[in-house]
Amino acid sequence: RSASSKARAANSIIRPTTTAVSSPSIGIANVHSFVLTNNVAKFRGADARVLEIPQGLANKNALLAWYASALEFPSYFGANWDAFEECLRDLVWLKEHTLVLFHRDMPLAEHLKDQRTYIAVLAEIVRHWNADEDHAVIAAFDPACALRLRQAMKP
């Protein structure tokens, strides 16, 4: 492949048309765009908070504990998918306009049901905040995650 086609692929967006996945609290949702890029630096700026999700988060407890710490969820955070979604919906305290959640790998690789739920929650949060003018959320993945991301978005 040419250098320009590789660059386009590394900065593409996954846009499934009407792929539906289930989530415990949101029922059936359309999966919205996830950004594929290996250039996390392009998101850094005065009005963006970039969180690089650590590689190798193998289970739901580790993933949710990391988010609880990184985003300083309240002490009553219940460490379940509904509580996770609720905390991500309540980002009004965030002083930056944009929250970027950058993934170098796919969390929960050995737990496909949880991985699908995580992706569904992210899609719903992206849709929720991007409809709001005060904040935006970008869920970004390294292009190496594209196949696994598409698999996680299948019903």
Task: Describe the protein.
With 155 residues, this protein is α/β, with parallel strands linked by helices. Helices cover 35% and strands 20% of the residues. The protein has helices at 3-10, 60-70, 81-89, 112-130, 146-152, and strands spanning 13-14, 20-23, 27-30, 34-36, 48-53, 98-103, 136-141. The strands form 2 sheets. The chain has a 5-stranded mixed β-sheet with strand order 1-4-7-6-5. A hairpin with a 3-residue loop joins strand 2 (20-23) and strand 3 (27-30).
Quickly list its features.
single chain; 155 residues; alpha/beta; 5-stranded mixed beta sheet; 5 helices; globular; disordered N terminus
Total beta strand runs:
7
Order of helices and strands: HEEEEEHHEHEH
Determine the structural class based on helices, strands and strand pairing: alpha/beta
How many helix segments?
Answer: 5
Quote the beta fraction. Answer: 15-25%
> What does the largest sheet look like?
5 strands, mixed
The residue-averaged pLDDT reads 81
Give the strand order of the largest sheet, numbering strands 1, 2, ... along the chain.
1-4-7-6-5
Low-pLDDT regions: 1-32
Radius of gyration: 15 Å
Helix content: 25-40%
Distance between the termini: 32 Å
Rough outline: globular
